[in-house]
Amino acid sequence: MDARLLDILVCPVCKSSLKYRKEQKELVCKPCKLAFPVRDDIPIMLEEEARTLGQDEN
To answer: Is the dihedral of CA 42, 47, 49, 55 positive or negative?
Structure first.
């Protein structure tokens, strides 16, 4: 994923910064506990496409 894109992307729910998990191919919002998928290097920033992080994930 392009570092410049990652710098400007924010969570669509709370506007917090996101952390990129390369192995899982997802962008994580810690305050909302949501993980947004990245498909073919394109972040899918829709709340309905995000998965909720489990208790053991940070």
So the answer is: positive
